[in-house]
Amino acid sequence: MGFRLLASFALALVLLTPAAAQPAGDEASTAAARALFAEGVQAAEAGDHAAAADRFQRALTLRWAPPIAYNLAEAQARLGRYVEAIENLHAIERSNAPDDVKENARLRREALEPNVGRLRIVLAPDEPGLVIQVDGRALPEALRGMAFPVDPGERVLTVLRGAQQAGRATATVVAGAETSVHVEVAAPLPTPEAIAAEEERRRALEEEARLATHRQSAQRRKRRLGGALGAVGALLVGAVVVGILVATRPEADPRVNGNFDPPRLEGRVEGVSP
Q1: What is the separation, in whole angstroms, between the first and last Cα of the chain?
Q2: What is the rounded distance in angstroms from the CA atom of residue 132 to the CA atom of residue 158?
Q3: N- or C-end of the chain: fewer Cβ atoms within 10 A?
Q4: Nearest-10 Cα torsion for 185, 190, 192, 195
Q5: How far is CA 143 from CA 147, 170, 226, in A?
Q6: Per-residue model confidence (pLDDT) at position 5
Q7: Positions of the chain with pLDDT lower than 70, given as ranges
Q8: What is the pLDDT of residue 198?
Q9: HSE toward the beta carbon, residue 9, CA cutoff 13 A
Q10: Residue 207 phi, psi (nearest 5)
Q11: Residues 88, 92, 98: CA angle, nearest 5 degrees
């Protein structure tokens, strides 16, 4: 199905919508959607699918209509955005669009589905609060650890812990296949408060070590001084004792000094022969 067929149908649908059936003040939105849709058709016919997708998306935001959604899906498919295209076609199938439009949407969706791959992201280690992004878009929590549809090609995976990046990896997704990728999650980085607290603790430990070293040095000096004073005191006591002993000793006995000559007698004793 090309753009030209559905463009004509969509324009007719918008133009023939009675103004009375629209909510009050909605006429301006309808007119803007009609203009954007026309620009999208022109861009698609010129092969500028990026501009076509942009105009169709804007028009669809202003007013949802099955033909607009279909042409948006076609432009997205031409850009390789198969997951978005399939979801837009699903929306048409669930709408109250005419049966032929819904059938066209079903056939186009079934033709696009083989182009979609599946990706499973496993965090190592995993922890609560981590946010997984695929190409900058947050992955819903319900899809964590599950294989989910994704466009083929290289996908960039980012793991965030708050404002900090905790992990990053790339995955090459193949159409029609499932790709599993393990993302290594780094340990939490310290916060500024934790860094300040750790610095304060380090300084306290250094100050405590400095004081302990000072106390040990003082104790060593005290012990050395005490030892020196003890030695001096011992010398003084010894000197005093020696002095006392010298001062109080008896007169020297000549025999003690080695003089054993008997004293000479100065006179004779009568009756005793010399």
Answers
A1: 174
A2: 6
A3: C
A4: -160
A5: 7, 18, 78
A6: 45
A7: 1-25, 232-233, 237, 239-243, 245-274
A8: 83
A9: 17
A10: -65, -40
A11: 155
Between CA 58 and CA 130 the distance in angstroms is 33
Report yes or no: 44 and 111 within 8 Å, Cβ to Cβ.
Answer: no
Q: How far apart are CA 97 and CA 39, in angstroms?
A: 23
Note if the pTM is more than 0.85.
Answer: no
Residues 86 and 148: their CA atoms lie apart, in Å, by 14
Q: Where are the beta strands (DSSP E) in the chain?
A: 117-124, 131-134, 137-138, 147-150, 153-161, 164-173, 178-184
Summary count for the chain: helices (H), strands (E): 7, 7
pLDDT of residue 257: 53
Are the C-beta atoms of residues 171 and 181 closer than 8 Å to each other? yes
Strands 137-138 and 153-161: unpaired
pLDDT at 18: 44
Q: Are 157 and 170 in contact (CB under 8 A)?
A: yes
> Which residues are bridge partners to 133 per DSSP?
138, 158
Number of other CB atoms surrounding residue 23 within 10 Å: 8
